[in-house]
Every structure is written in structure tokens, then in C-alpha cells.
Amino acid sequence: MGTTPILVLGATGSAGRRVAAHLRTLGVPVRPASRHGATRFDWHDRGTWEPALRGAGRMFLMAPDGIPVDPDLAGLAADLGVGHIVLLSSRAIETMGDQRLIEAEDTVKKCGAAWTVLRVDWFDQNFDEGPFRGAVLAGELAVPVGDCRQGFVDLDDVGAVAARVLTEDGHTDRTYELTGPQALSFAEACAVIEDVTGRPMTFHGSEDAYRVAQAAAGRPEESVERELASYAALRALGDTEPLDTVPRLTGHRARTFREYVTDAATGPDWPRP
């Protein structure tokens, strides 16, 4: 790939920084972009788009939660010679009615550049770096998925896959689904956290428990009810079947949830109880 850099959007975030790290390990020039980095990129400031994109050969694209992928951005990337866009998406978006990600995938596929979509399951790091951290620290988590098993996947493995897809031939115009090596229910995942860390964890998988938790957080009832409809659709899918995408594309086995928890327990995000 020579000296043409790969642009990584959201390079200070949980996913982007891991993608950038894996690209550097492969010896590839990286242009990390974020709102406050040396290469500025702000979804709400169009003036930052062209300077970030110009001269990049490929791009890792992840839009923060709630922000759509603007077709103007994808079109500008293609016009400026970005030849391959790798989009981080999520599994079961049609089932859950995630219109934002459905449209993001459609936008990237139609922009004129080659594309790859990574559809990932729940991130392991949701528990220490993401939305479940507060619940872990409080010892109580509510997610209305019942006892359905999920394919929790480690973001380090996601970063490794993204780096391979961005630097190897044969991955364009394809969608890859990524899971971890085993399927766990949220109750089982919480039990692993409790076992490894000694931190008490109680899981509630009912809709009523989710309503109570979200009301306590001040969430609007209308938004919560929409989310409950999406979760009901996810429950109807049943247990996730673990896939071999990570080892097949990276050449190494995917990290287990217990291995993730063991590492996270020594990090700064989970102070000892």
C-alpha cells in the first residue's frame, strides 16, 4: 500500500483506536482522525471533512451512536480517491429496525468506492468502557433479552479483522458477521464478571426491569418503548450461533469473554469493589 495512509475515523474511541493500533502493527501508514486530534474530524463540522479525507487511500468508518452516515461524506470520500471504505455496523439491524445503520450500509454501498461491512455482535468492552460500565459498578444490569445467548465479541478482535480487511485483497463488496467464540446469556456474562472480579452482579432480563432502570435514568418513556420493541425482535431470533470469522480472517482464535474480563479486571475502568 506504499505511503498512502489509511484514515481511521473516531481514532480515540474504543473501536477506532484498536483499528489504528493493529494497522500500525502491520506497518501501514495510519491517519487517525478525531475531534481533538492532529487530524480533526467532526461529524457536525463539514469543514473538517475534506482535509481529513484528502490523500487517504482507504478509510475505517464508524459513526457514533445516534449519528447517521451522511451520504455527502461517503460521496466526498469516493470523489477524493478513497478507494475502500470499511464500515462498522451491527448484527440483526433489519430485525431490530435500526434504520440508522441500515441507511449507513446502503450509503456506503452506493457511494462509488469499494466497501466492506463488518456486522458485529455485542462488544465485550460495553461492560468496562461502554454503556454497561455504570451498571457493573452498581452491581445490577437490566437488558430485556431474557436468557437468549449472545455472541459477545472482543473489540481487539474486531480491530484485527478491520486491519486485515483494509490491507488485504479479496474483501471488497462483502459483508462479514463477527462474533466471539462462544454464545453467552447476559446472566452468564454477569456471572463471569462476578467470578473473576469478586464484584457482585445481578442481571434482570425482563421488560419491566428495563423500564424501571431506564425511568430511574430519566429516559423518555417513548424512547424506551421503541427500544423494547427492538429487543423483543432480537429475543425472537433466539440464541446467536458463534461464527469463525475472526480466526478465519486473522489467523488467530477469538478471545473468550472470560479472557476479556480477566484483562479488564486489572484496568482502570473497574476499580476494586
TrEMBL record:
Protein name: NmrA family transcriptional regulator
Recorded superkingdom: Bacteria
Coiled-coil zones: none
InterPro entries with a match to the protein in the record: Ergot_Alk_Oxidoreductase, NAD(P)-bd_dom_sf
